């Protein structure tokens, strides 16, 4: 069937940076119907509040939600307060410990506030899946479980691997994909988004909608963002992440630390620039423009999104000062007593190093400066006075030692 310019543009935006869009022809039909009727499509994203904070890797799928939101569709931010009680087994080689109701409540309180830094909160429907999962009760859960076979459940990669290697699989883990799929039935979603590790759960939604007589949703998966190290997916456990609540100077500097190659993947997945604008910028860099210019633009865009334009400008100036060996305008003021004090104890006391031994390693690596001078003597003792102490590129403190 002919595709209008509007539907074609919407499809192009839908496909930007995605891993898979299944089935694409069904999504085109949904877009065309929406255009013809003026009725927005219902776009669902479910997140379990397993931790209180999110990093910019989590915002990849939120960015896609925002792009679809800007096309006029209804986005639904679903907090999995019920499914968190089960624990998502995706990608796990062992049973995930379920969270307590208290942990879930505490984490959920910050999730939507942080997600609203990307989504338009005035146009976002926020729901909790306990709303329809709790009323199911035992009989409803049995009826739901009857709509999927154990054989098909065992086709799931993580279950299959655990079974073949003799690792345990708790029966309640089978309930997780069923409950996530039932969320799509309850919300009558047209499209569900998720990471590549969520594909089985997303397809479960399609299956259950058909079982309940609904038009099945389409499924869109986004790639996992590679972290600062350029190797592994962004993760707090890998310490290669940028938290969306990190202070502006740190956020800006961390973006600038990524490789020139990784920068373009980040542009595609994180920037709100159009693909055409990114292509022009990439061509300019290929033609001789300094890639740092493009990286600074990305760092300012991300810092502005989670803080403000003024904070991004200040962070750029702060980074410039540090790169020239200067001291930022605002650094922590610390007062310590006990002069004369060893440099290791001073760094630890000012929270510039976690321990005296780590302070020694920093000194050995040439990463410690006092009043601009690199310190090489781990036995150095400082007399009473005020010193500007720098550790690495980004840690500063003005220490008054009494």
TrEMBL record:
Domain RNA-binding S4 residues, every copy: 350-385
A Pfam cross-reference name: tRNA-synt_1b
Compartment(s) where it occurs, according to its Swiss-Prot or TrEMBL record: Cytoplasm
Motif 'HIGH' region, chain ranges: 49-58
Assigned GO CC terms: cytosol
EC number assigned by the record: 6.1.1.1
Motif ('KMSKS' region): 233-237
Keyword set includes Membrane: no
Main localisation: cytoplasm
Gene Ontology annotations of biological process type: tyrosyl-tRNA aminoacylation
GO molecular function: ATP binding; RNA binding; tyrosine-tRNA ligase activity
InterPro entries: aa-tRNA-synth_I_CS, aa-tRNA-synth_Ic, Rossmann-like_a/b/a_fold, S4_RNA-bd, S4_RNA-bd_sf, Tyr-tRNA-ligase, Tyr-tRNA-ligase_bac-type, Tyr-tRNA-ligase_bac_2
HAMAP family linked: Tyr_tRNA_synth_type2
Protein name per the record: Tyrosine--tRNA ligase
Record organism: Acidovorax soli
Lineage: Bacteria, Pseudomonadati, Pseudomonadota, Betaproteobacteria, Burkholderiales
